[in-house]
Amino acid sequence: MKPSPSNTSSVYTLQDLVRGRVKHGFIERWNNHLKRIEELNDKYHAYITVFEKPLAARGFLSKPLKGAIVGVKDVFHVEGYPTTAGSRMFHEKIAKTTATTVRKLLQSGGAVNGKTNLHEFAFGVTNKNPHYGDCLNPFDDSRVSGGSSGGSAVAVALGMCDAALGTDTGGSVRIPASFCGLVGFKPSQGLIDTAGTMPLSWSLDHVGVISKTVWDAALITSVLSDSLRKPLFIKPANLDGLRVGIPENYFLDYLDEDVRRNFEKSIEKAEKAGCEVVKVHVDKPETAARCRFIIVHCEAAAYHLKLCGGRMDLYGEEVRQRIASGLAIPASVYLNALRARKPLTMSFRKIFSRCDVLATPTTIIPAPRLEDEHVEVDGRLFDVRTAILRNMDLFNLYGVPAISIPNGFTRERLPTGLQLVGDLSEDVKLLRVAYAFERLLMS
């Protein structure tokens, strides 16, 4: 029988582990995950580097994460191991330091079992990688996992680790989480330190978490942050009277039929649970999306122009084209995009005077097929990248927290996601709301 999340994933959550409800000891859990990697990684390409022995701190089993086994996206430096960033360029470049995020994870009782695959240099949303293999979707191996943190999502979905770290510059944690039936949390920008992480766009990058549940994501986020209470054991928010904003423009304009149906059903369920649904208008979303496009392409091009050392031939064709497009953007256009970011963000944040959270479908389509270059949605033809990013990238420009939670399946049994967005620095509030929604949608 083909492996799938329903019959191969680890059945326990981090909440089970922390609460002492997991019967297996650490060594048995480690070996079970390693066995999953040995059985499935050659096909699904979730990991680039696998650690045969746990990377863990002394006394880790007595610390908040209780020996949770975590995969880390291969943009986080881990001393003594290569940081490939999904590229052939750096497959032998050994890191001399460890990323702040990984160090905090280890100090909090996490155990790292390897470095996960990604879209080359985190510059894409499908996780089709010409150097380390395409990450395949655990629900349908003819489809993409989503990216750029696709290896992290596939590893969690197939029981290769308990949770995983990723980065999110335009949806790169939330997209693969949605496509793989998981939780993907992008916190407020700056909540988690990016030091020791290979950048894509230094002004838009966020560190995020992919996990099985919202509770798990909240716990890991808390130990990685300097400002949240540690450890954070969240409780669900009270949905009675909670104001849920539904955008009346842009985000719902083009949706796959099953994505729309699942979204509308969930909002109806929220209303029945006592939520107040409020229509809100998002100001100039197309302008915001264009600004993010300009910023990410210019900053990535500037970084890689210096990084490549004249060896751009080692880069994949897709990434080379994107870097070239960034180099073609005039400096004045980049500066104008940076200048526009603050007023666009301030305008967006005004909606939270009318609602507690904003709700959208995570992506407007389910996971596309590996060979798809274009998709038709509600009569409009999109290139795959634009379709996947449409409901994602604005929240990186705004820097606000956003989370994707599982939201049912299409008729082809592909996962869809519900995205909840909070105001800047209201990460705990958003996580509590997401926890309540998660429980509601599972009931």
From TrEMBL:
Residue ranges of the TM segments: none
The highest taxon in the source lineage is Archaea
* One GO MF term: catalytic activity
Q: Which InterPro entries has this protein been placed in?
A: Amidase, Amidase_CS, Amidase_dom, AS_sf
Query: Where does the Amidase domain lie?
Result: 34-431
What Pfam families has UniProt attached to this entry? Amidase
The name this protein carries in UniProt is Amidase
